[in-house]
Design brief:
Organism: Streptomyces pyxinicus
Keywords: Methyltransferase, Transferase
Strand content: 15-25%
CATH superfamily: Vaccinia Virus protein VP39
Bound molecules: S-adenosylmethionine
Largest sheet: 7 strands, mixed
Oligomer: single chain
Shape: globular
Pfam families: Methyltransf_23
Number of strands: 7
Number of domains: 1
Distance between the termini: 38 Å
GO molecular function: methyltransferase activity
Strand order of the largest sheet: 3-2-1-4-5-7-6
InterPro entries: SAM-dependent_MTases_sf
Structural class: alpha/beta
């Protein structure tokens, strides 16, 4: 089974996002695996007028929120089923595009530049950072923000496809990797889980040189 096929299978099992969150909002950005928990899009800075790329955009709901705030958004995802669902739900939103393409393939071929790159439990978790970080950096505008989240190192979750494909590093390793690839102001930390839960969320942010 190809990687795209295994991610397509995984997509089938994923639950669609609710129509509204606890605040009654119809769009929102959530970095964590828990509903209505953790920071919002503020850590990206103002996004109005910014070109945003999401790597592994899934059903597109996080990216759609940024577009409602005035960004233009491109979501890339390796799984064709994801593009179909994202287009069905968010296809009417001007300034928002979705494409079925593997993240490194997209970044290697595009001539587009982005002000913000984000990845929420997305491709940054699943591609070797030694391969992916230089490709991301090459397509980012100076001063642009890279931010991503994933489960903390050592936490368990079923993984689709090939064994060993996750790259869930510690905060200090992410900071070293990002700095080593020329990003500045790299900061990584684990967001505490909600009460009664034990697994937090790794959240990482850095600035493109
Ligand atoms: C755990 S899901 C998260 C989806 C979405 N970001 C969310 O928060 O709901 C991981 C997503 O990354 C996509 N993905 C995994 N590896 C990828 C790669 N190398 N290139 C592009 N997309 C990838 C998968 O198809 C899947 O949609």
């Amino acid at each position: 089974m190809s990687l795209a096929e295994s991610w397509d299978r995984y997509a089938v099992g994923s639950t669609p996002r609710r129509a509204e969150n606890a605040n009654g909002d119809t769009t929102w950005l959530n970095w964590t695996q828990y509903a209505d928990h953790g920071p919002n899009e503020a850590l990206l800075g103002p996004v109005a007028g910014r070109r945003v790329l999401e790597l592994g955009s899934g059903s597109g709901s996080n990216l759609a929120h940024l577009v409602t705030l005035g960004a233009s958004g491109l979501g890339v995802d390796i799984a064709p089923a994801r593009e179909a669902v994202a287009r069905e739900r968010w296809g009417d939103l001007p300034g928002l595009e979705f494409r079925t393409v593997e993240a490194t393939a997209f970044l290697s071929r595009t001539d587009r530049t982005f002000d913000v790159v984000l990845s929420i439990f997305g491709a940054v978790w699943f591609v070797d950072p030694e391969t992916l970080l230089p490709l991301i950096r090459a397509r980012m505008a100076a001063g642009g923000i890279l931010a991503f989240s994933h489960l903390p190192a050592g936490s368990q979750r079923p993984r689709p496809g090939r064994a060993g494909m996750r790259h869930d590093h510690s905060p200090s390793t992410w900071e070293r990797l990002l700095t080593g690839h020329g990003f500045t102001g790299a900061s990584a930390s684990v967001i505490d889980p909600p009460e009664g839960r034990t697994v937090g969320t790794m959240l990482v942010r850095a600035v493109a040189p």
